[in-house]
């Protein structure tokens, strides 16, 4: 059970509300059952996470690193594009609704490349859950459309699935003709 507290210094002086919710409530007399997390090993997988919300980036980064992935975060699509070639991600995870260059423009720019990085598997991470939003993301070049909030197990399964379809680094070095 949670608690709610309210405080005000008086009329016209604003109010503060504090809501506390338990993370893992215990039933008296029983030990807490912790559900084992799905064990997915993402060692060797390089993930680029693009989201303008610092909290979202931190959560995705933490979940992915715990599974062994190497994670590079970018706060904007422009930052991601500037670092994309040097990072050489195995998988791209990107928010759609970002100021300036949005996630749809980001995937368009990546898919228009002439090298193997154009085929990096990508998932759109977005709060836009309508069918039309999903269709737009897939039409622009995303391989998956994941609706926020994304459960950690779903995120890991999705990254694992995308990594399996990633082009190998060997494809980058095409022989000179």
List the helices and strands and how they pair.
Blueprint (H helix, E strand, L loop, with lengths): L2 E6 L6 E6 L25 E5 L3 H13 L3 E5 L2 H11 L3 E5 L7 H9 L10 E5 L4 H10 L3 E4 L4 H13 L13
Parallel strand pairs: 3-4, 3-5, 5-6, 6-7
Antiparallel strand pairs: 1-2
Helix pairs in contact: 2-3
Please sum up the structure shown.
This protein is α/β, with parallel strands linked by helices and about 180 residues long. The protein has helices at about 55-65, 75-85, 105-110, 130-140, 150-165, and strands at about 5-10, 15-20, 45-50, 70-75, 90-95, 120-125, 145. Helix 3 links the parallel strand 5 and strand 6.
Can you put this structure into words, describing what you see?
This protein has helices at residues 54-66, 77-87, 103-111, 131-140, 152-164, and strands at 3-8, 15-20, 46-50, 70-74, 91-95, 122-126, 144-147. The protein has 5 helices and 7 strands, in the order E-E-E-H-E-H-E-H-E-H-E-H. It is elongated. Helix 2 packs parallel to helix 3. Helix content is 32%, strand content 20%.
Q: Give the neighbour order of strands across the main sheet.
A: 4-3-5-6-7
What's the number of helices? 5
> Mean pLDDT, nearest integer?
85
Tell me the Rg in angstroms: 20 Å
Order of helices and strands: EEEHEHEHEHEH
